[in-house]
UniProtKB/TrEMBL annotation:
<keyword id="KW-0812">Transmembrane</keyword>
<keyword id="KW-1133">Transmembrane helix</keyword>
<feature type="transmembrane region" description="Helical">
    <location>
        <begin position="79"/>
        <end position="100"/>
    </location>
</feature>
<feature type="transmembrane region" description="Helical">
    <location>
        <begin position="7"/>
        <end position="25"/>
    </location>
</feature>
<dbReference type="Pfam" id="PF14325">
    <property type="entry name" value="DUF4383"/>
</dbReference>
<protein>
    <submittedName>
        <fullName>DUF4383 domain-containing protein</fullName>
    </submittedName>
</protein>
<keyword id="KW-0472">Membrane</keyword>
<feature type="transmembrane region" description="Helical">
    <location>
        <begin position="112"/>
        <end position="128"/>
    </location>
</feature>
<feature type="transmembrane region" description="Helical">
    <location>
        <begin position="45"/>
        <end position="67"/>
    </location>
</feature>
Amino acid sequence: MTVQRFAMIWGILFLLIGIGGFLFVEPHTHPDVTMEAGLGLELGLFPVNLLHNLVHIAFGLWGLLAARSLGAARGYAKATAIIYSLFVIMGLIPAARLWTTFGLVPLYGHDIWLHVILAAGAAYFGFIKREGDVRR
C-alpha cells in the first residue's frame, strides 16, 4: 500500500468514526467532561462528544486532501502518528484532567487502544514505509 492510499483510507475511516459519533451513541456521563454536548459512548464502547467527533471529521478531511500528493500524505501520516500518540498518553493520565483534554474531549477507556492502533498505522506510513518498497 502506498502512503497516499494510506492517507485516503485513514481519511475515510476518520470520517466514518466522526459521523458514527453522531449516529451510534449511547448516553454516558463522566464528571471530568465539561463539554457535554453529544457526550456518549460510540458503539457503546468509545467515549465521544461533539468536539471529539469534529476532530475525527477534521482528520478525515485532512487525510482525503493529503492523499493527493506523496509529500502531503507523508506529512499527514507523521502528524497523525505524533498527535494520536500524545492522545494515548493523555488518555492514561487523569491528573490535571488530561484524560479529558481539560474537560473538552474524552480520551480515556477504549479510546486508548483505538488511538494506539491509529498512531501505529500512521507511524509506519509516516516514518518507516518508503515508496518503491515492494515485498516479493
